[in-house]
Amino acid sequence: MSLVQAAGAALRAPVGGAPVVGVDVGGTKVMAAEVGPDGTVLRVAHRATPGRRVDVALLEDALTEAVREVAAGRRLAGVGLAAAGFVDAAGERVMFAPHLPWRGQQVRARLAERWQVPVLLDNDANCAARAEAAYGAAVGARDALVVTLGTGIGGAVVLDGELHRGRNGMAGEFGHMQVVPDGRACECGGRGCWEQYSSGNALVRHARAVLAEPGAVGPLLDLAEGDPALVDGPMVTQAARAGDPVALAAFASVGGWLGTGLANLVAALDPEVVVVGGGVSAADELLLEPARHALAASLVGAEDRVVPPVLRAAHGPEAGAVGAASMVRDALGRGLRPRRARRSRRRR
């Protein structure tokens, strides 16, 4: 049974070309995008993510504001949600999200009722894989691995041309594979998770630690007005492109860990292509070049096999939203629609 079939019954075709919106719900920001039939992003709205320790209503308020801005008063055909968390096999609930407050909530039904439009829900990396398989770097690949680097790491697996979701709908949660026993504490509650060494957070942490040492100087510190605590990901990327050694070292570390983790996944899955997306992928070769070197150096039998190319996602940071919209558009084409939320009734 497909995700769309599990999510519900039939969606009417959009009336008068009503827009389809995809929403990427990340650990630090929300991006809502109107997406055309060819995967083109037509209109975008951003909001900050309130954080994982806030009330769920604040997060859903931010989603609502972003969707309303993109809708601009128009009737929507449907909204797809790409959530940075563990989504159940039915596409109804976010069971756990290390960087968001959802814990088992009926996210799809709550937002469908609030917005009064059909809503579909899946993991953000699964949505990114849909975008790349349909319109991007994985077009034509029967077996592909998609890894997204943002606040943390997400992942998705395409096998025989189909997205593999697993028994619980949670396949591809690579970011929480343990790569360092008893390593850095992770937001998930574990230690030594891959995303603690290769992610946007890891990139910034590395740079800040070096700049906090006595006598630190350079373009990156200048961008942060002399305060290491103000360093963020875009600053590190900007400084690295200008040749700043601290920023380049941060990308070498994060890219190296990326390649080491990819070597384990390639050994297990033997994909045709590896696609890297998420916000950190905007750095392009600053991230991918060290990742390719580490992949080739760590992959067992690399000299006797075809090592898959490591490519940047064609849709970059927009891949999750594009894939979420594609998920809805596919549902429209099948004449399917998510169930609307039912109001609970108490027995008297």
TrEMBL record:
Protein name, UniProt field: Unannotated protein
SUPFAM superfamilies: Actin-like ATPase domain
Family annotation (InterPro entries): ATPase_NBD, ROK, ROK_cs
Organism listed in the record: freshwater metagenome
Pfam families per UniProt: ROK
Signal peptide start and end residues: none
